[in-house]
Design goal:
It comes from Protea cynaroides. By secondary structure, this protein is mostly helical. The protein is built from 12 helices and no strands. Helices cover about 45% and strands about 0% of the residues. α4 (about 85-90) packs across α7 (about 200-215) and α10 packs antiparallel against α11 (about 265-280). The chain binds 2-acetamido-2-deoxy-beta-D-glucopyranose (NAG) (4 copies). One 2-acetamido-2-deoxy-beta-D-glucopyranose binds near residues 189, 201, 204 and 207.
Amino acid sequence: MESKWIVSVMAMITVLLLVSMCGSTNAALTKEKKKVCDKGWECKASVYCCNHTISDYFQTYQFEDLFSKRNTPVAHASGFWDYHSFITASADFQPLGFGTTGGKHTQMKEVAAFLGHVGSKTSCGYGVATGGPYAWGLCYNHEMSPSHTYCDSTDYVHPCSPGAEYYGRGALPVYWNYNYGAIGQGLKVDLLNHPEYLEQNATLAFQAAIWRWMKPVKKNQPSAHDVFVGNWKPTKNDTLAKRVPGFGTTMNVLNGDTLCGQRENESMNNIVSHYLYYLDLMGVGREQAGPHEGLTCEEQTPFNPSSTSATSS
Ligand SMILES: *[C@@H]1O[C@H](CO)[C@@H](O)[C@H](O)[C@H]1NC(C)=O
Ligand SMILES: *[C@@H]1O[C@H](CO)[C@@H](O)[C@H](O)[C@H]1NC(C)=O
Ligand SMILES: *[C@@H]1O[C@H](CO)[C@@H](O)[C@H](O)[C@H]1NC(C)=O
Ligand SMILES: *[C@@H]1O[C@H](CO)[C@@H](O)[C@H](O)[C@H]1NC(C)=O
């Protein structure tokens, strides 16, 4: 009798032990799936930090190569932009996948793509400029002679601050009170009352630009980041609109209404050319940019056709 009792107690203990062992293997498995890494201040507490960080493959000398004319005396923001501001700003977004998604190749291409937009929008280069037309990115940090204050007084969510002017400022220039308001909210900086911060602080200017790159312009739309790194699956409507994953669609996300769907637009070609130029300088090579269809948006229907402005004709 007694021995039977002992055997059944032993059996129960074994079962308990097995159950607890299974439990701990399960826990180990789920932990494995969510493995996160820390790479110091640049990339923290994210699965994206387990691969390279941006400063692993994009260093000061490369930034200097890409933006070699920005500190010349004729540049309009001489002394403003630097590598350190870019990396510091990117640290907020690397844990979300900015420049840290996929293999090193994809990562380098994303940085070249983002900077291609930035370089084109802030360039003061032209056909015969020394160093060529693409050597002049980050020449500006704000619009030089704004023709108006870009205040949409019908926007009650982001009302204009008295006296503030919302002309273009930053690395991907921000215009209009509603855009300053939305980005300020995203970054938790009061840009609605202090739009001038974007031309006073290069780190903040890069943060605003990377924020724009990482966030959809409208709900249920992909971000420029998503369409570039392959996080986005086109819907039937997208396919009908010729919107495919790749660099071309980043222009659709960021500037669709002014650039896309009009064969051979000069501004569109200028953005593409900056991207290709940077791919070369970074040692990736422009041939890695992929086929022409994915590179432009000349055949694409814009995600957000203009007519959004309250004062549209
Ligand atoms: C890390 O790199 C590998 C190979 O380079 C890639 O397949 C993987 O998707 C990357 N991880 C993330 C989170 O992007
Ligand atoms: C510039 O902006 C960054 C990031 O938003 C902030 O941490 C820093 O304090 C700002 N610098 C100055 C001088 O205000
Ligand atoms: C697809 O496009 C049609 C016509 O423009 C529109 O009515 C419909 O809502 C769209 N569907 C989606 C899922 O966006
Ligand atoms: C194309 O690009 C130019 C700037 O080069 C821009 O002003 C214009 O709105 C765009 N659209 C057309 C139809 O040219």
